[in-house]
Amino acid sequence: MKVLFVFGTRPEGIKMAPIIKEIEKRHDLESYTCVTGQHREMLDQVLEIFDIKPDYDLNIFKKGQSLTDVTTKTLLGLEDILEELKPDILMVQGDTTTVFAAALAAFYKKIKIGHVEAGLRSGNLYSPYPEEANRKLTGVLANYHFAPTESNRENLLKEGYDDKNIFITGNTVIDALKYSVKEDFVFDDEILNNLDYNKEVVLLTAHRRENWGEPMENIFSAIRRVILERENVEIVFPIHLNPIVRSTAKKYFSDLDRVHLIEPLSYMPFSNLMARVKFVVTDSGGVQEEAPALGKPVLVLRNETERMEGVEAKTAKLVGTNSQDVYDSIINLLDDKNLYEKMSKAINPYGDGHAAKKIVNILEGMD
């Protein structure tokens, strides 16, 4: 069986890598990798960490690229590759524009599609944007749905998908953490090496499109208030490369010594930083899965999340973007030891670190 993996961003790369590495151990599957380069620098870091050498690189990234740019370049770039390689199945992961465009390209060639991390739903087509639409559209095209949790499976069943094509596997992001978190890890950034992690060090990430503008201003004003009121709190904020995020962050934090604005981190240092901080405040999707595996509570800066399992398991709390709500949630987690203990020790609902093995076993069993 000939399997083609297509991905284009750092999160996709991280979550695909354990499957690709697992396939390398098998002899009855022929594996090929195509990266679109929807993200460039951050994706390349992941490829290096996991020692993945793509067979094809569409290299579509350009500054200021639109969703239309990513979609059309991926479609056009994959057309010749699919014609030449003729894979038996094309594997995509998650909900980026690369995922939807790659699935569409495979559909046009009548090639089977496997969707890793299938069945996530927020219930709002515009939040997260464009991810909610991307994953739903990919689901329509996919032949096999690798759902991380029972809740994801139920979402797919409600939408009419055949249960025999849905497989609960756990999330491969938990597998990936096994490669990366090390007790003796040394950061390249001396700021991170010199922080006293016995104090109240909080990791912040914020970048989602739906939070640009007023929501992000609300979030950052709440965090600024926490810093001004609490002398023992330090924030580490790896700032996304997007200029809107950067300008807003500098507006609120550039004069605060205990907010460390650093460049985006590659996967290894980010995972190891997450393992050392007290808790995480984020609007990211993947971090909601990773942090609980490390015993770190997560405050989710969104009004909806497609990862409700974490909220239901009490590893995460959905706090929204209202400034007072964000402030109150951070203060509560800093002050309430019982709340912190419950969140940090809740069982991670996203799997046991063997998702890649399960997925490859399923692929081996296909006709």
UniProtKB/TrEMBL annotation:
Pfam families: Epimerase_2. Gene3D superfamilies: Glycogen Phosphorylase B. The keyword Isomerase applies. One of its GO terms (molecular function) is UDP-N-acetylglucosamine 2-epimerase activity. Its EC number is 5.1.3.14. The keyword Isomerase applies. Keywords: Isomerase. This is UDP-N-acetylglucosamine 2-epimerase (non-hydrolyzing). Belongs to the UDP-N-acetylglucosamine 2-epimerase family.
